[in-house]
Structure formats: C-alpha cells, structure tokens
Write a structure and sequence with these properties.
By secondary structure, the chain is α/β, with parallel strands linked by helices. It has two domains: 113 residues, 3-Layer(aba) Sandwich (Rossmann fold), CATH 3.40.50.2300; 97 residues, LytTr DNA-binding domain (OB fold (Dihydrolipoamide Acetyltransferase, E2P)). Helix content is 25%, strand content 33%. The protein is built from seven helices and 15 strands. The strands form four sheets. Strands 2-1-3-4-5 form a five-stranded parallel β-sheet. Strand 6 and strand 7 form a beta hairpin. The longest helix is centred in the middle third of the chain and has 13 residues. It is elongated, with a radius of gyration of 20 Å. About 3% of the residues have low confidence.
Amino acid sequence: MNAIIVDDEPRAIELLRSYLSHFAAIRLVATFRNGLNAFEFLTKEKVDLVFLDINMPHISGISLSKMIPEETRVVFTTAYSEYAVESYEVQAVDYLLKPISLDRFTRTMAKLLKQDPGKAPAAPETLLLKSGSRIYRIHTDEIKYLEKDGNYMTYHLADTRILTREPVHKALEVLPASFLQVHKSFIVNLDRVTGLEKEILYLGDIRLPVGATFKARVLELLTPGSPRGTR
C-alpha cells in the first residue's frame, strides 16, 4: 500500500515516518510540507493512503481531502481538537490528535489493515457531545470509559477527556452495545477491557471497580467462550 505524509512540520513528518517503519504493508513513497505540491503528486501517482495535517498554509487538509480520488484513504492529523467536527464531514479512516503516540497510531493502522481494500472504508459510529459551548463529534471506539460525578459525565477517550451534563441512562441510550454499566459511576467500553480480577476491571493500566449489582452481567459477558449479549 503506497502512502504519503502531508504536514508542514518536519518533526511531525519524521515521527510518522518512524511509526510507519513498523508496518511492512505500508510503503512511504513521498512526504510534503505543502498541500499544493501534494495535490500535484496525487494527480500523477497512485496513492492508497494519505496522512494529512489539517492546519496548513496555502490549502487546508480538509480542502485537499475533497480534491483527491475517493478511493484514496485519509488519516487526518492535527494539534487542534476544534477541527474534529469539520474533519468528520470527509470520510476518513481516522482522526489523530497530536502529539500522536505509537499506541494510538498502531490502533489506527490495525483498523486500516483490516479493511477490504476493494471496499470503501466503513464509517465508525459517532456521537455528538456538548461540553459547555462546544460540540464535539467523536468515534465511539475512541471511548475507553465514562465516569459519572453528580450531574456530570466525563468521557475518557484515548487522547483526551470531554465533560458533559447527562445522566447514566441517557448515555447508555446512544452508546453501542459494546458499552456496559459496571458500577453506579462507570460505563465501560468492553472492547477496551484487558482483564478482570474479582471486583476490578482492567483497561490497560486503568483499574475500575465493578459494583455488586452489575457483577453478574460483567462475568456473563467477559467469561471466556461466552457470546456478547445486549445490555
């Protein structure tokens, strides 16, 4: 799979180049610090994947993404979370917020390499979250867990946290079936769970309690060989 990187920051390009070196299926064929030069290259060469910074001089990454062939996959990168909503207007494999960790990059690559190259990328489930005066649009698979504190709910994502004002039942109504309430104060993305020990759920280094009311359901869904059910 041929890929290019488009970013006006040399250090950002070098970081992505180093990350891509871990993936033999991806061949980095060019890098660009100018979106217009990248567009000229894309009109002449076949490129399967573009890592595209959003905030660039001359032409933004959003504008450039609308000009390249539909079959070319796009991964947006940016240091500014306020561009998230605008970026979701364009079908993309993922949206990476700088500074990008290798762990976060690897999950994006795993998602991309699982896709059938003959089909358009499937759009992930998204949510609109209101926090103060700002509205965020996020992928549900980015959510690790939700934490309730009084009238407020904190969405813990891979790279950030978003505080909203909503009760538990309202959050569960819009979340996909992979999310389960495990405690009066916690809802967990079961796809993020890495272990269970007595009344403790592990999400990597994160430890969350399992409430007595919810323990039976947690065990039912996380026992080896048991199929995932509905909430």
